[in-house]
Write a structure and sequence with these properties.
Shape of chain A: elongated
Order of helices and strands of chain A: HEEEEEHHEEEEH
Distance between the termini of chain A: 43 Å
Helix content of chain B: 25-40%
Radius of gyration of chain A: 22 Å
Order of helices and strands of chain B: EHHEEEEE
Number of helices of chain A: 4
Strand order of the largest sheet of chain A: 4-3-2-1-5
Shape of chain B: globular
Largest sheet of chain A: 5 strands, antiparallel
Oligomer: heterodimer
Distance between the termini of chain B: 26 Å
Chain lengths: 168, 124
């Protein structure tokens, strides 16, 4: 088996969501569930959920890893639980009418600021390069050009009424 | 232990004459096109790239959740130090931390080399 840092991303991906025991250079052992392996440094991120305590995260730097052994495999539930620690989840669910009024509000605000915007079903398209999808917050803009993205995001952020700032 | 000590040595800043991209960094040398195998097909490359970006995104989110948290750094010779995590650089070669607790006192700002660190742990 190749050294840890020389393995391929496919091999690293095999370990994600598995319960593993990582042996480090000075014979130290770390146990936990693999959240990810950084492809740049081969560092392993382990998450553990001890009873009655806050979840703890350990990052073992790639250069120090000598061996990784799988102890148990994970399930969709464990994956979801891990992900929820790092990824912000949308807690607010809006109704169709609310979404429609938010979309309309945003469209009018953008037009007022002389930004060319069209409605395309459920999304707003700005100058046919940027898309704003539900729920039309700052984090819902997607564009290939960072400058346009930054400009439109600051506009969305500054809408009077302050309701389009990021939800989380 | 909590009295701040004066800065002992300033770290060297980035090269002022270049745009910041270092052709001698371990990452560039590892991923430089001349060292990648030319026999792999286009589709395998795409798949590998997708895996890489997926893994990297998760790692960046880990770093993001680590910022401004009290982190314990486990270093060589069983040395353990606590500090508030600031940032890492793109190649994960250095970590910028604040209020590093050392036997000499508390360093207000410090740069830790990742080769010196074995692991770091924190709570969410």
């Amino acid at each position: 088996m190749l050294q840890w840092s020389d393995r391929s991303p496919q091999q690293w991906r095999e370990f994600v969501n598995q319960e593993v025991c990582v042996t480090a250079r000075d014979q130290q052992r770390f146990e936990g569930r693999v959240f990810t392996v950084d492809p740049v440094s081969a560092s392993v991120v382990l998450v553990s959920f001890p009873e009655h305590e806050r979840p703890s995260v350990k990052v073992i730097l790639g250069h120090a890893v000598t061996d990784v052994q799988t102890l148990a495999s994970g399930t969709e539930e464990t994956e979801r639980r891990m992900k929820s620690l790092f990824l912000p989840d949308r807690t607010q669910v809006l109704s169709k009418e609310e979404l429609k009024s938010r979309r309309e509000n945003l469209r009018l605000w953008l037009e007022k600021n002389r930004v060319p915007v069209t409605e395309d079903g459920d999304v707003l398209r700005v100058a046919s390069v940027l898309t704003i999808s539900a729920p039309y917050g700052t984090g819902d803009c997607s564009c290939a050009n960072e400058i346009i993205l930054a400009r439109v995001q600051s506009l969305v952020e500054s809408i009077p009424g302050g309701e389009h700032t990021s939800l989380s | 232990m909590k009295t701040p000590v004066s800065v002992l040595r300033l770290p060297r800043g980035p090269d002022p004459n270049s745009r910041g991209f270092d052709p001698n960094s371990p990452r560039f040398i590892a991923l430089c096109p001349t060292t990648l195998s030319s026999s792999s097909s286009g589709r395998a490359d795409e798949e590998e790239q997708r895996l890489r970006s997926d893994l990297r995104e998760r790692f960046l989110r880990t770093l993001l959740s680590m910022t401004d948290k009290q982190v314990e750094f486990n270093m060589h010779e069983k040395v353990r130090v606590r500090a508030r995590f600031g940032a890492s650089d793109i190649d994960v070669l250095n970590f910028q931390v604040s209020d590093l607790e050392t036997p000499l006192g508390v360093q207000k700002e410090a740069l830790l080399r990742s080769q010196d660190v074995i692991s770091c742990s924190f709570e969410l």
